[in-house]
Amino acid sequence: MTSLKPGKVYNSQSHEIIHNVYKFMEKEAYASKSQVFEKSHFQNIQDRTAQATGVSRKTVKSILDEADTSTSTGLLTFSTPKKKKIKKEHRLALDDFDYQVIRQKNL
Q1: 100 within some domain
Q2: Domain range for residue 56?
Q3: pTM for the whole thing?
Q4: Which domain of life does the protein's organism represent (predicted)?
């Protein structure tokens, strides 16, 4: 499977899909085994989810952490990072000569 571009920003729909894939694999693991799961088993599920969706395990972990914090409020929501806009400087760059010329014209 081809991986997605590094540094790519995933929107909230992508977060939700990755979360749903993790939950599916977790449910599948619980159904196949009735033993107590260790921490390493959950990392294995994260690795499988990362491989299935084409993102890194760190991305999967951060999405799961975001899901845990959002479910504590009662509703599962994911946020999309906002794109920072570059603001144009509206002031004109004037040197002293130009400033004095404009001043003389206004008087």
Answers
A1: no
A2: 12-71
A3: 0.61
A4: Eukaryota
